[in-house]
Amino acid sequence: MANKADRDINRMLQATKMADRRNFRNMVSENYYYSFAIALLILATIWYFAAHLIDQPFIFPYLESVIAEVIAALYDLHVWRSFGITMRRVITGVVYGAIFGYPLGMLMGYSPLVMQTVAPFINSLRQIPTTSWVPLAIIWFGLGDGPTIFVIMFTAIFTIILNTVAGVQSIDSDFYNAARSMGANFLDLVTDVVLPGSLSGLITGVRIALGSAWMSVV
Predict the structure, then answer these.
(1) Single pTM value for the model
(2) Residue 165: exposed, middle, or buried by beta-carbon count in 10 A (0-12, 13-18, 19+)?
(3) N or C: which end of the chain has fewer CB within 10 A?
(4) How many angstroms separate the CA atoms of 120 and 128, rounded?
(5) Could you tell me which CATH number the domain at 77-218 has?
(6) Sign of torsion, CA 132 137 142 144?
(7) How many Å apart are CA 63 and CA 210, to the nearest integer?
(8) Of the candidates 217, 210, 107, 108, the residue with the CA atom closest to the CA atom of residue 159
(9) Is pLDDT of 24 > 60?
(10) Own/partner pairs for 120-125, CB < 8 Å, 24+ apart?
């Protein structure tokens, strides 16, 4: 049982590291943004010549036509109104994910017992594709914002849990020992050590969750 729990913990922490885009930037080092600009320029050049070579705009639109439509969309109030609705749904879903995921992540990171108890369920739920929840979300919440916010929350909550667990487990044991030596009880440890120490994990989790939420907003 202990070995299985350890494997679950390791998988969760590994997933957190893989999900963080900073790892990719670190591989490219300080040339990340220059490399991105060059790659974007190469892609635009290929797109321009390939579209004109194929000469079938309905199948492969011209680059200049797409840019013109994007510029026109910036002056369309309907586009901005739709963007505002989408942004509200994304932020609401991520906030709900943080409300439920952050306390659970703190408990899992602080207590081995909670980790061993909850980790198998978290890992099982994480394997379910997000789109599989759409029919159930429509049944539970009806049409409108409800299903979209639920799917976004479902996507965000696991990212926030994993990063919070990593943040709590990165706290040096000396902080716990110092607090206990001054008579701190469980509540004091949570409020004075675990909560501040896990905020970096929460911030990272929310940042990644905001990025992944756009993939499930549709």
Answers:
(1) 0.69
(2) buried
(3) N
(4) 13
(5) 1.10.3720.10
(6) negative
(7) 29
(8) 210
(9) no
(10) 120/4, 120/5, 120/8, 122/12, 122/158, 122/161, 123/8, 123/11, 123/12, 125/158
Identity of the amino acid at 142? G
The end-to-end CA distance of the chain, in Å, is: 40
Residue 215 burial class via C-beta count within 10 angstroms: exposed 0-12, middle 13-18, buried 19 and up: exposed
For 35-75, how does the pLDDT look when each residue is reduced to its tens digit (9 = 90+)? 778 888 899 899 888 888 888 888 888 888 888 888 888 88
Domain locations in the chain as residue ranges: 20-75, 77-218
Report residue 216 as tokens.
Answer: 């499930």
**Does residue 68 or residue 12 have the better pLDDT?**
68
Give the confidence band of 27 by pLDDT, cuts at 50, 70, 90.
low
- Tokens (6 digits) for 86: 């989408």
- C-alpha pair distances (Å), 113 with each of 61, 86, 100, 201: 56, 39, 19, 21
Amino acid 31: pLDDT:
63
State residue 1's pLDDT score. Answer: 47
